Amino acid sequence: MRDNLTRRQFLGTAAAASAALTEIPAASEQAETPAGPTSGPRIVDSHVHLRHGNAARTEYSPETIVETMDQVGIDQSVVFAICTTTGHSIEMAEAAVKKYPDRLIPYVYALPHYQRPVIKEIEGVLSGGRFRGVKIHAGECTLAEYVVDPVLDTAGKHGVPCLIDCLGNYPVARRMAQSFPKTKLIVAHMGRFLSKDKELLDQFIGLAEEFSNVLLDLSGVVIVEKIEEAVQRIGSARLLWGTDGPDKQPDTVTYARNELEKIRRLSLSEQDKANILGRTACNLLGL
Length: 287
Hints:
Elements (H helix, E strand, L loop, with lengths): L3 H18 L22 E8 L10 H11 L3 E6 L4 H14 L4 E6 L9 H8 L6 E5 L7 H14 L3 E4 L4 H10 L5 E3 L10 H13 L3 E4 L7 H10 L4 E2 L11 H13 L5 H16 L2
Parallel strand pairs: 1-2, 2-3, 3-4, 4-5, 5-6, 6-7, 7-8
Helix pairs in contact: 2-9, 4-5, 6-7, 7-8
């Protein structure tokens, strides 16, 4: 992402502030062993990068991702690589899932290729349920009809969702939702990463109100009261928790744990929190 350095600095500061506001348990109460998968409602991180969109194109190994999950208590994670070709994204996701088939869920990254169409590659991995969704990023390609429509149509035919970072472009998001009612569209970051524009977030909540095929991804949402408002307006069954991690600021475990606690501290029912943290993803992906 083009504003990545500012973004990482921001997250580091936010994580430190969150830690300061949270009561630290006594040493005797702190767990000395990894949390591992949870025993309660399943927790699913629906937004995890094998390869990021920052300036360094940072990559994280599946081992690092799963070790972080174990420490935080995350059962499963949706993984994908961006800022690379569709073919390479498939290779990275397949290698990761091969190592941890019960923990990692692959999405294919849709990126146009100058030399050949990639729709066949996308169809190939969606067939038979090999991959459970599609990732599209406006920072890497245009969201013009001639680019995204074939992908959205393909996803709808295979019954898988598209996680789309539209960089706050509401008119484009609305056109996609209206044009492809049979395709589940997950709007990343509730519209725009780290947005402090309440009116913009309201627009995307309204989009989900208008179109039942739209879900909202909550990673990178810093105006947390808007999450509570979204629950009131569209229901928790259409909201998905994600970290947009891993992130080393301050470290991968603290970063993910703070994102998890962000939801747990909300003034919501336990059922709503369980939906956001895992049930919505499980229902959407047929887990």
